[in-house]
Amino acid sequence: MAGNRVLTETHMDVLKEIGNIGLGNAATALATMVNKRIDMAVPQSRFLSLEEVMNLIGGLEEVVSCVSLRLDGDVPGQILFIFNLESTFNLVDMLMGMEKGTTRELDEMGESVVKEIGNVLTGSFLSAISSMTGLTMIPTVPMFATDMLGAVLSASLVAGGYVEEHILTIETLLFENQEQIKGHFFLFTDQGSLQTLFNSLGLTL
Amino acid sequence: MELSKGNAEIQVGIADYKVASSPHRLITLGLGSCVGVALYDPVAKVGGLLHIMLPDSTQFNNVTKPAKFADTGIPLMIEEIKRKGGNPSRLTAKLAGGAQMFSGLDEKFVLNIGQRNAAMAREILSRLGIRILAEELGGNRGRTMIFDTSNGQVTIRTIGSPIKVI
């Protein structure tokens, strides 16, 4: 991704705004699903090392759940949702209509609930971006892992081919104000896909 | 978690390596598809721990961090072990990691990097004539590796399983 280091502050602002619009839509979708108010932090767009990406979330051995979706179409890339364990359990309880604290481990059902959340959030993120840019972005079937943050995140980025020293990271935090849900959203874009994205908005790279 | 305490512990980051001598311990956290390579000279009690991300540096044009790859990282660490008083002909190896973390995987998307990392690490070690004493590879769990340079023991920590010493 070294070739993309020519990005100016304007480009970075545009990426943040894309995060804002897409995630705003996704946060609303999540709020509707769990029937709670969901807020989001201001999206950031930066070149980060793998370790810096991990530091945004927590310790390398912290147990997290991660839904990972590949993006095909005009803007190839990868989307990740990472929730800490407590949030994961709370999300399953909320979506299954169970009392808080019921879920203490993830069975197959719990896993599909979390994957489905990833699906819905990605869908609403992409539809907002598509209607803004006119570009087509198709998510693949979500993949899921729950384990140590370091293991999950590095495996996901390596599999996606994001192995440069610094990776362009579009990131934000989604949270419920009583801290029942706290999840990180990440968008990583493939080399070349940024050009398409900026061109669709009348910017050059 | 008491294993991670103690001031003689040196952390090894992703795509990095560290060499130390007894009584220091080297630790690398959260290996997923990455592979940890511990090399040990039991006589000099000097050891190195390497955390590789990818198997083969020749697939890339611009290699800025040789410790990221099995083929370049292992020889690099051996050089450092030599400088710190270890003898390459006495080195033995222990490996951990190389897991397949994600379920529901699209085969062509992943090409099982974990497996390829493990295979390349083994190949490079065999090419260099370094015997592998133990390994804890594959599966679908993340691993933390703690390498004790006083005795060559490697402790493996996984979520939901007891600690294992290899």
What does this structure look like?
The complex is a heterodimer of chains A (205) and B (166). Chain A is α+β, with helices and mostly antiparallel strands and 205 residues long. Chain A has six helices and eight strands; from the N terminus they run αββαββααββαββα. In chain A, strands 1, 2, 3, 4, 5, 6, 7 and 8 form an eight-stranded antiparallel beta sheet that branches. The longest helix of chain A is centred in the N-terminal third of the chain and has 26 residues, at 9-34. Chain B has helices at 70-83, 107-110, 113-127; strands spanning 9-11, 16-21, 25-31, 35-41, 46-52, 92-97, 131-137, 143-148, 154-157, 164-165. Chain B has a five-stranded mixed beta sheet with strand order 1-3-8-9-10, with no helix packed on it. Chain B has a five-stranded mixed beta sheet with strand order 2-5-4-6-7, covered by helices on one side. Mean pLDDT of chain B is 90; it is low at 1-6. In chain B, 20% of the residues lie in helices and 33% in strands. Chain B has one domain (2-165): 60s Ribosomal Protein L30, Chain: A (2-Layer Sandwich), CATH 3.30.1330. The A-B interface holds A 2, 50-51, 59-61, 63, 68, 70, 111, 115, 140-145, 147-156, 158-160, 163, 165 and B 13-15, 29-34, 53-54, 62, 64-65, 68, 99, 101-106, 109-110, 113-114, 141-144, 157, 159.
Rg of chain A, alpha carbons: 16 Å
Beta-strand residue fraction of chain B: 25-35%
Topology order of chain B in helix (H) and strand (E) letters: EEEEEHEHHEEEE
Summing up helix and strand content along with how strands pair, one would put the structural category of chain B as alpha+beta
Function (chain B): Probably deamidates glutamine residues to glutamate on methyl-accepting chemotaxis receptors (MCPs), playing an important role in chemotaxis.
GO molecular function (chain B): protein-glutamine glutaminase activity
InterPro entries (chain B): CheD-like_sf, Chemorcpt_Glu_NH3ase_CheD, Cytotoxic_necrot_fac-like_cat
Protein name (chain B): Probable chemoreceptor glutamine deamidase CheD
